[in-house]
Write a structure and sequence with these properties.
- The complex is a heterotrimer of chains A (192), B (104) and C (110).
- Chain A folds into 2 domains: 77 residues, no CATH class; 101 residues, no CATH class.
- Chain A has 8 helices and 3 strands.
- In chain A, strand 2 and strand 3 form a beta hairpin.
- In chain A, helix 3 runs antiparallel to helix 4, helix 5 runs antiparallel to helix 8 and helix 6 runs antiparallel to helix 8.
- Chain A is elongated, with a radius of gyration of 20 Å.
- The two termini of chain A are 33 Å apart.
- With 104 residues, chain B is mostly helical.
- Chain B has a domain of 46 residues.
- In chain B, helix 1 runs antiparallel to helix 2.
- The termini of chain B are far apart.
- Chain C is mainly α.
- Chain C has one domain.
- Chain C has 3 helices and no strands.
- In chain C, helix 2 runs antiparallel to helix 3.
- Chain C is elongated and about 55 Å long.
- The chains are: A mainly alpha (192), B mainly alpha (104), C mainly alpha (110).
- Chains B and C meet through helix 1, helix 2 and helix 3 of B and helix 1, helix 2 and helix 3 of C.
Amino acid sequence: MEDLKREGHDFASSDAGDMAGDAMMGNVRPALNLLVVLFGMWLLWSGHYTTQLIGFGLVSCLGVVLLCWRMGIVDREALPLDLTWRTLRYIPWLTLEVVKSNIDLAKRVLSPRLPISPQLVELQATQKTDLGRITFANSITLTPSTVTIEARRDGRFVVHALAHEIAQDLRNGEMDRRVSRLEKVEKPESAS
Amino acid sequence: MFAAAMVAILVSMAMLLVRAVKGPTVFDRILSVNSFGTKTVLLIAVLGFLAGRPAFLDLALVYALMNFISTIAVLKFTRFGSLAGERSLAGEHSRPTEPQAAET
Amino acid sequence: MAGALDVLSWACLLTGSFFALVSSLAMLRLPDFYSRVHGASITDTMGAGLILLGLVFQAGFSLVTVKLALVLMFLVITGPTASHALAKAAYRLGLEPVIGPEEEESPSQT
């Protein structure tokens, strides 16, 4: 069961497109992954390791996986393990960006003149996969002073930005490029 | 020091309540309540440390999850007028990936 | 050593509380719904991050630290999702955002 988790990242090689066909078989591995992660979570949070409690935990995890299966939400997107190790290089940059943006926004709010000029920005995202676009949209929203209002499947985003400079930064598209690099199957070299 | 952080969080929560009462649109109110919930999570976490009972973190996590789900539920109720009615099951806007699946 | 950790933890807690206050202030001062979403996201990122980081410094390295990290992770994932859902619902229902002037926006309500 442990090495199923290791194999997680080779899901990246399969496209989003061919998921629909082998829905039933394709769902076995994500379901097992989900079970492992859920049970690990249970062990972590419970802190009591008696046979009875671990048994309860296993039964609950199985129940949850069964429910999710029946709802049809167990697929690659439910547990994007393939993103985790590449994401490790993206998170520090995003954190720094979020901190900078927070300080900027705090300055704007605290200044008596309230120097903002809200506007809508249309973007064309360059990500290939759904997961990439979701990551990009969530990164935009996570950064204060930009909020994704609409994220279409064709990559057209509508973003609300709080000021001209912020909108200009978005149009420069550095975050877009970084997220695109994130989803590449080949090893991204200059991710720092 | 924990007490100071708690006072700050409580004051900011009170300010959020003002926005929730005043908020011109229903979305302002939902946003306020959502943010209020996030601050409640922080408050519970800090309170756990103040009382020397870090087990409060379990409550904080549950509250974080409940807060998110309740926000989505209220939002869905605002949008569709019901939580699991016929129209919301059709999901015309709730899952935008479905109707346009043919594009990619 | 413990003293330095305490100072660091207090600094994080206080800065986090400050950002929580700023976030509420932003909710009160900003002119329309879409800009208030930005205000709310300060709490989700900076406020929660710093306060929980301060608590991590207090907790030392234990199961509590892992739990704090998990709480932060859930907040960071659910926060933007809720914000986006709200903004999108408002946009679909036809709530028009206030498009600001080049220079400044007079606070219409304080």
